[in-house]
Specification:
mainly alpha
Amino acid sequence: MNKAVSNYMQNARPLRELYGYSQTYVAYVVGVSQSLYCKAENGQVKPTFSLVENLCSLYGISLIDFLGKTKKDLLNQVMNSDGYRKNRVDT
């Protein structure tokens, strides 16, 4: 797969795991099949703008932060937000 496509969703999996969400749950919330979400998260297909926009909404982050921040910077930002403390799934 093209490196640009695989990097497009580089923050999707770390965010999903940080919140304790399954791929099935995230796919349902963003309105795609679990199979499509899995392929997008793994860089096998380019996600639609709608999917990325819905992911940003789910995690309470901006599109610019999702696409532009490093994994470490984005996870630090999210972990310090009120939305993270309210919406994560405790395991």
